Amino acid sequence: ILESVELLFTPIVYLEDVFVRADWKTGEVRVQTKVRNAGNATTLGRLEFLAGPDKTGEAVAAVHIGQVLPPGDTLIQTELQIENHRLWDIQEPCLYRLRAQLYCEADGRADECSVRFGFRDFRVEKGYFRLNGRRIFLRSSHTGNHCPVGQIIAPDQARDLLRKDLLYAKAAGFNAVRFIAGVAHPEQLDLCDEIGLMVYEESLAAWLLGD
Q1: What's the pLDDT score for residue 203?
Q2: Of 58, 82, 63, whose CA–CA distance to 18 is shortest?
Q3: What does the alpha-carbon distance between residue 9 and residue 99 come to, in Å, rounded to a whole number?
Q4: Which residues of 4-36 are buried (b: 16+ CB within 10 A; e: fewer)?
Q5: What are phi and psi of 191, to 5 degrees?
Q6: Please, are residues 53 and 29 in contact by the beta-carbon 8 Å criterion?
Q7: CB atoms within 10 A of CB 149
Q8: pLDDT for the residue numbered 42
Q9: Is the pTM of this model over 0.85?
Q10: How many angstroms separate the CA atoms of 80 and 62, rounded?
Q11: Order of strands, edge to edge, in the sheet holding 128-131?
């Protein structure tokens, strides 16, 4: 086990997962939510979705939904519109946050979670890299993501070393980093989002394995 382990105490009906896809051209935010009813009876739930800039916490868009929730999983899809949205970019990594709250009549308790996201688009067109439609030259370093102590399984005190690696890469003028033959820690991906560093991530089986 490479990451931390959590034990979550939740209501009988709770938010199992919230997935956000933001359209960089229109400012539309599509939200897919999985609600799990771990009880034996159908109940009525009220869902509230709020979205806005992550730095300020201000809600600039909101949607409220009433939903019948039978036992098991229910998939709910909704959309929000953020006016005058700002793009995530290398020099201005603007981030937004969606907050989802579920109130259920079954036990009178609420469950909530939040997801951070950005409006951005990265693709290859005719052999050129493009970020948000603009041609961009990749200046990328790479990391094996190992620590002097613990190597892949980094002790808490070594996490700061991994953080410094990314900050130094950004300060040195790189705009991307490759996690070579290994995945990044979640907090590293969060930091890259915050400082405007693109990520190329590989699986552990990306190379040095036959076939």
Answers
A1: 80
A2: 63
A3: 19
A4: eeeeeeebbbbbbebebebebeebbbebebebb
A5: -65, -40
A6: no
A7: 11
A8: 93
A9: yes
A10: 7
A11: 122-125, 128-131, 134-135
CA distance 24 to 40: 41
Mean pLDDT, the chain cut into blocks of 10 residues (211 residues total)? 82 95 97 95 94 94 95 97 97 97 83 96 96 96 82 71 92 95 86 96 76 59
pLDDT for res 154: 62
CA angle, 23 as apex, 118 and 119 as ends, to 5°? 20
Reading phi first (left if > 0) and then psi (alpha if -120 to 50, else beta), residue 108 is in left
CB-facing half-sphere around the CA of 163: CA atoms within 13 A: 10
Residues 186, 2 contacting (CB under 8 angstroms): no
Residue 107 in tokens: 């036990």
